[in-house]
Amino acid sequence: MTTLPAHSGFPWVMVIGLLPLLGVAGILLLPKAREAEARMIALGASVVTFAASIGMAIDYKVSGKPFQFTQDYTWIKAFGAHYALGVDGIALALILMTTALTPICVLASWHDAERLSPDDEASSGRGPRLFFSLLLATETLVIGVFGSLDVFFFYVLFEAMLIPMYFLIGSFGGPRRSYAAVKFLLYSLVGGLLMLVAVIGLYVTSAHQLGHGTFDYRVLINQVHISHHEQIALFLGFFIAFAIKAPLWPFHTWLPDAASEAPTGTAVMLVGVLDKVGTFGFLRFCIPLFPYASKLFAPYILGLCVTGILYGALVAIGQKDLKRLVAYSSVSHFGFIALGVFAFTTQGGSGATLYMVNHGFSTGALFLVVGFLASRRGSRMVDDFGGVAKVAPWLGAMVLIAGLSALSLPGLSTFVSEFLVLVGTFTVHRWFAVVGIAGIVLAAVYVLWMVQRTIHGPVTRAVEGFRDLSLREAWVIGPVMLAIVFLGVNPKPLLDRINPSIQRVNVDVRHGDPLPGAAIHCVRLPTRSSAAYSSSLTLSLAAARCPTGYVEFTSHVTLTSISTGSTVK
Amino acid sequence: MRVDYYLYLSAVLFTIGAVGVLVRRNAIVVFMCVELMLNAVNLSLVTFARLNGSLDGQIIAFFVMVVAAAEVVVGLAIIMSIFRSRRSASVDDANLLKY
Amino acid sequence: MYSALHAVTYAKSTGVFDLTFLLVLFPAASAAVLLLGGRRTDRWGHLLGCAAPLASFVIGVIEFFALISRDGGQSRQLDQHLWTWVPVAGFHANVNVLLDPLSITFVLLITGVGSLIHIYSVGYMEHDPDRRRFFGELNLFVAAMLLLVLADNYLLLYVGWEGVGLASYLLIGFWSHKPSAAVAAKKAFLVNRVGDVGLSIAIMLMFATFGTFSFSGVFTAVHGPGVRSGTMLAIGLMLLLGACGKSAQAPLQSWLLDAMEGPTPVSALIHAATMVTAGVYLVARSGAIYDVSPHARLAVEIVGAVTLTMGAIIGCAHDDIKKVLAASTMSQIGYMMLAVGLGPGVYAIGIMHLLTHGFFKANMFLGAGSVMHGNNDEVNMRRYGGLRKLMPVTFVTFGFGYLAIIGIIPFSGFFSKDKIIESALDKGGATGDLFGAVAIAGAGLTAFYMTRLMIMTFFGVKRWPRDVHPHESPKIMLIPMAILAAGSLLAGYLLVLGGSLQHFLTPSVGSSIEQGAHTISPWVLSVITLAVVLGGVAAAWWLVGRKPVPAEPPTHVTLATKAARRSLLGDDINESIFMHPGAYLTRALVFFDNRGVDGMVNGLAALVGGSSARLRRTQTGFVRSYALSMLAGALAIAVSLLLVRVG
Amino acid sequence: MTSTVLAAASSGAPATMHEAVLFWLLAPIAVAAAIGLVVARSAVHAAMMLAAVMMCLAAFYTAENAPFLAVVQVVVYTGAVLMLFLFVLMLIGVDSTESLMETLRGQRVAAGVIGLAFSILLLAAIDGGIASFHPKGVVSAEAGKGNVAAIAQLLFSRYVFAFEATSALLITAGLGAMVLAHRERTSARQTQQERMQERASRGGAAIAPLPGPGVYADHDAIDTPALLPDGTIAALSVPSYLQVSSAQPRREDPELGA
After folding, report:
1. Cys-Cys with A488: which of A413, B34, C267, D27 at CB 3.0–4.6 Å?
2. What is the distance in angstroms between the Cα of C426 and the nearest Cα belonging to chain A?
3. pLDDT of D15 above 80
4. Angle made by CA atoms A496, A502, A506, in degrees to the nearest 5
5. pTM of the model
6. pLDDT of A554-566, one tens digit each?
């Protein structure tokens, strides 16, 4: 193996990661008397960060190296830990989503961290300075997690991410915030510890093989061959950690509590951004590092995903609390994401990655509108609303669109990703996909029933005084809606960057995507009179569909004949 | 007579002292039992010195005595102050560490 | 017919055909302006709302003439590439619009009838404070419907498909403060979603089987070797499921009657003329797939025949004028389904009935709207009576529609419906005869319930309450009705004349069956059908027209009538099979999640906490107990050391 | 006797007949006294028992060629430490005999069983571990300087740091004891005037001095109560700690009966 270039291009990732920290520094320098300005600084820092990430996206070469803008410095020499950063298409998309959502979270939390009175003793430590520093710190850590190319570095950031989020929930949340925060922390820590064991195991394996242990991700995937038994053990360590983080059924019960107790901005950050680390981890670590174990466990994991899709949706139908409803719908959606990831097809993987981005916006939108509703009514209960659309038509429309995006209406971004996930699954695991499709009917049930009971129907007394969207709220929800519509109509720029990375992720698990059923038939039955024509037709079709150059066929066709067939176009 | 009889005696005295610590409730008597245990150990230390033909055992016994003296001073002062505040010298009454 | 190696290809659009995208863009842009512009656009919103479909109609007409001016040598199927939508490895979806005879036919129907209904709505919705929003949503519907029929691949079609579903949802729930409207809207969307599952599975099957889901790719590949008939049957059935949802065919028919909660122009445009016929369009468009799968065709025929009968029976029992018309729509779409299910060559006839139905049913809905408009939005026909004198124009235009639907010569319905019956009988065999008989019986039933409607509404004595003063509608409503009435009369001629429509549609849906293979002579059949129809009319007069209509529906009726009044128990079945068990399941799962899954987590935490608390009890605070345990510990350590030494 | 024992011991490590006599004489006494320490009801008795044990041990130390320790044992332990115990006992009340009822369930049984097991274990361990030893005696280690000088030499050479540390410990302990025993005055000391005012404010008989004890022909002890004019006993005339049931004036006395 050739040695990998340590540095390439402008260190965008580091810059983007450090910008929010600058904001944190600015906020901490503020005197207490001017602490309300913390939000201005936070907004400024996060917008600049977003602008920088746009710069990175423009600078990213679609057909360039697998990992771009890399940096690699030895961090802890004693056990081969590196400070290594870099992005591929998947990380690029997720970093963009993170930096786009953070200003929205800041704006959405504009009044959430205000003190009740200037010298409010009860909230002495919990002013806007703390809140917005924590929010920005979370952003930095999440960007670091997505951009990390060292397993140990990733692990450290992965665990560090919990700390600001713990305080965001535990200090600023609803009445049961400490229960929710502790539950969130303990759940995540359990997963994190399992992952730590696996990370150490990975190091030991690499030390056995290379003579010197390393955590360098690119070295690990290219030069270290992990035996099957080790793969199974290490895979489970990583998988459970990510499954808790994602969260996958049945590790989901922390999410409804955490998301419903957290203030709106935090909930968006938590469910929209932070949880993507779990599904991102599947793609970044589980599959490329442990292809054998991934293949071995895939059917069971797909079973979990499908269960989660239906389960999350059904439980969401039965929720009385709007935030919990959204949280359970996310459980369902995470089932879709993981379904696409573990289908090991380009459609599934790209769809899942796109889904992560879209879910950030779509669930973000839902949490935001629920936050708008709750801030007006002082309650999150579905039954406390009714007829909002009549009183506040814009607010009603936003609730409706957010809901439609959650049920994956074609034309909105979630549809593209959900369909890709299902198609990607369908080509290899037909029945999992079919059962998963039932989830889209259930999604319609919970969304529309929620819509019917909150914004439709006769205007209830409590709703009568609702004002429509304020200017700030419009600026919060507007960009999200724009992103949802834009990505629904033109997901190509993002998909073009994601696709090659996904194909690299899947290359060890499945060589190229499965051929259409009819094409395989043609090759299987070469005695048919028209076989010559049709097989060449379909094979050229197949070759066109498999940019990696791999074509997988059923057993009784020799590979040589196929590969000649597919190269002669 | 064998020298190790002293050791047997020491063991017996030590055990009696230990049982005394366990069954008596008067803090001062408990303390006396502790002293008995220390004395028993001293006896065995002196005997060990004789067995080994070195004075180190006696030295250690001496140190034990000094430390025991210090311990008694502090311990009795503690018992005094407890008695002052609680009007009781029973070790069972001083159970603030209870769960 | 397709030959085995005949690849379906579409020509690249040029010239005037590059304007195809404007068809969708006009109403879409107008919808965006009206919905995002807010109250600022209230003043002129309805004008823009009418202009958009009219502009599309004009372009449609231009393109139609451009299309027919292309002679046989030139392809009449023109594909315009707009942008690449979803490119993922083999999964390549484009946003392309396909202009071919089938789509232009629909374009003209949608924009033509749509424009008329828009104009009508200006008057109908005049007093509604949200008229601008109404027009915005109506435009959104037109845009989505046009996208549906112009898509050149199934995925884009799916976008339009759900888009019209969304518009339908919004418009049924237009008066969403009425709980009944909100529930009906939700129900329509949900039932459609079930159908959409079918459509999406069909698309996935196509992709998994052929590696493509564009029309040209799929229609070429179906004739390739190695295509298993089971797969084709599955695709056909899944497409049919989608069509059933959208077109309110059994077993997904239950939403249509409730959808009448929407404003009447919506019922006319969406739930009569256009959207509900999208299922027929889908089956006709997918003709190549059904051509190779006779079993799938049979399923389509059965669905059509069953719904045809069900709709007609339901129509006989309801007193709500819109619901009767809705049931009639179901029934008529059943005819179309039956036609397109009959397979190669009959697609065009189904489309023809679709067009004529678009005219006469829209006409009648607008008429019903006019009647309601004049009667304080009363929909119960038992509160009407004798309106022909007070609303003469409405009566006449409605009458045209009435004559068309029951199939009286020379109204349009006669031509299209007769052809369907004829084709069903021509299919031969037991099923052909059965379907033919059902179709003829359906014609009789149609005549019965429509005559009942006419009698209860326009004839007899007045039965409206004292404070209602029926009056004729304003001109802006009457003119569209008049135009549609003319269409109801003339459309049949124009379409049938020399098989013009069938020839025109040949590139899209294949050629017609050869003439002369009839089992029964067309003339004889027409006479039989007319006789049955007249029998139905007579029966209606005998049962309804002879005596005064009671103000309340009679309660001592047969079980069959009761079932028909409850829409043949469609809702009851859905409720008992899906809703109630679903509600129980949901409640059980919520309980399970709180107590089971979360309970396990919390239980684990409680176990740790509890055992710690129990362990804490050993800290009695008695020094002597601690001393005892210390001594015991010392003993244990000494013993174990000794054992290690000895052992 | 002591000189013979010393002479016998000084000759060598193995125990002589004299030492055996001494051992078998004093060992049972030591054990009996130790048991007495554990079972004695009164704390003062227990202290006496402990003194007996310590004296016995001092004798054993002399027999074992440790005269310095023997003296320290008598002077420091028996003389100082034990006296300290007795002082504290006096401070907190000599009469505080504890009831012999055990309050912790099973404590006594468990202590007995574990103690027995522990002693068996120790005895067995000594039996197994020491049997092979041949006592060397400490005389050789004294190098002719005598026990005290030899110990002194070791203490101030090899163990000098430990010795210094111990001295520091002793000082710390002394300070600690002072701190612990010191009672901080929480309020200002009452003047005599204030005490009087307080007494006057209480009113009643408390203003006058308490009545003295009764003085009779046959009794004038301090525990004899005085009689009030009506013939009843003046309870306040006898200090509370002397009020015992036996100390009643004899009613049968004819002169006192009135």
Report:
1. A413
2. 34
3. no
4. 150
5. 0.80
6. 333 333 333 333 3
